[in-house]
Each structure stands twice: as C-alpha cells, then as structure tokens.
Design a protein that fits this description.
The protein is an alpha/beta fold. It has 10 helices and 8 strands. The strands form 2 sheets. Strands 3, 4, 5, 6, 7 and 8 form a 6-stranded mixed sheet that branches. A two-stranded parallel sheet has the order 1-2. α2 links the parallel β3 and β4.
Amino acid sequence: MNTIDYIYRFDPKNPSAKPLPHDAEVARRVLEDGNRMFSKWMESCRTGTPSLGEPRYIVSCNGLEVGMLRTHGEMPTQSPFAVVVGCSDARVPTEMLFGQGFNDLFVIRVAGNVMGDVCQGSVDFALTDLSHSVRVVVVLGHSGCGAVTGAVDAYLRPLKFWSKSLSPMLRSLTQRIFVAVREAANGLKEVWGPGAREVPGYREALIESAVCINAAQAAFGLRQEVERNGQWEVEVLYGVHNIRNHQVCMPVDPTAPRSDENVRLALAPSNPKEFQALAVQMAEILRPSSVPRHGQKHLIADGQAEDALHATELDDATS
C-alpha cells in the first residue's frame, strides 16, 4: 500500500533556516503558497496519485520554534507572522491548510468567525504584544459554515430563531451574522430577480454568499481597528476555505476544481459599499444556468415595451 505523508521538518544543523516574512506582502504570499501546497496534497490523497518523486509534502519549521537550542526550563519566544481569525469548524485545520507549522500563526477560532468582544480582545493582544512579528491579520471563513447556515435558516424561517432549542448565547452569535445574510439575499434578488427565493438551490447559494460577506464584514471591522491604532504596516486580509477543494479563495466558486490560480486572499474592504458589490459578484457566480440575470429580463421587457409602443403609434397613424 502506498502512503502519502505530511511532514513537519526542521534542520537541527540550521535551526533558524525559516526567517519571518519581512512585510505584509511577503506574508500573504507565504500563506497562499502554503495553501497551494496543502490543496495539492489533499487532491493527491483523494485521487491516490502522489506527485513525482518522494510522495511527501514537507512543511519546513524553524528549530527555534519547537524549543531547540535553549537552556533547561526556558520557553521559545512567541513570534507568529499572521493572526488568523477563523471558525471553530473541525474540518478547517488552520495551520495545515496554510502549510504552516509551530509558532507561525496566532489562531483565534470561534463559531462563524464572528468578532465578539473576547475575539477582538485576542486580536488586540496579538497586535500589541506580538507586534514585533505580526505582518498580517486574516479573517478565514469556510464553505458550508454551520453558524452561517443557522443564521440563513433563521432568516428564511424567523420562528426558528425563537425556538427553545436555541440558547441565548447561540441566538446572540446568530444575530451577528444576520447583516451578512441580508446583504447576500439582496445580491441574489438583484441578479436572480424578485422570485429568487423560489429558485431551486436558493438556500445553498444564500449560505455560500453569506459566508463570503460575513468574512468581508469582519475584515472591514478589523481594518478599521488596525488603522485606528496606527499600525499601517499590518495588512488585513480575508478569504474563504472551500472545503470541497481545500483552497482559500475570494471570491469563491464552490464548484471550481483545484487550481493554483484559484488561491487568493483579498484585501479587507475599505468601504461598506464593497459588501454590495461582493454580494452581486457572488450571486453571479452562483446563478444557475437556467436563471437569466435579472437585468437581462429588464432589457427584454424594455425592448418589448418599445415594440408595443411603436405598434400603437402605427395604429394611431393609420386610424
């Protein structure tokens, strides 16, 4: 039986061989390249077709990060280059999917990657106490998010929101996602037409779109916080982990096959109007082929109206 190994490796002869990214742009590329490697590894596991050569995928680690070359009782210094605010979902192994190892990422996980007070406090801690190493802050959503799904179902069936099965704390978490769901619903209505809710697959599309907008809104809030603190050298990014192909993308096509070109982290929005643009973009990506764009319907209707008006003018002229 062939095996495909995922290995964390460090060189005891050169324990500091993995330097910190020197700026935000390099940090972004490191994360994206790591995700390309991870998604390639996952695809090889699914298909049973490892790459040529040794069937191993190596994650290089800095030996100092795992405590090499230290005196007894001394702890290694914490020096992550990225803060990642992600969902608690067990299907999203943050360090692995970015191809990172020990001491690379400061990971904050909460259902729906919502920015509550404790989550924001954790980010503030990292930006303050670990400012010597942090280059980027990343908000990471993921496809099929359970918290976003709960918010979508409560939006579509409001009585569900008040069900006794929802605790006050869970209800509070769900409420934080409602704005993203509403924005996603508006985008679907704009592109799919006023009857969007009746289109098969509407609920699934609403979930996928709301996941992206929820991540964008969290990134927008974090960008404001970073700028308010004057930390101009730190960049705020966001993306969504597509669980189907294990790639981090923005925007996200849930049906796209794995491709290196798909991997991209987007800059946090600088204006709330960008949420609407993202909602429309996602609605276009998710639009079933059987559904014409709503604007196209208007064009057809306008043309028909002009023809009807022209016919009426002809009738008046000949009567």
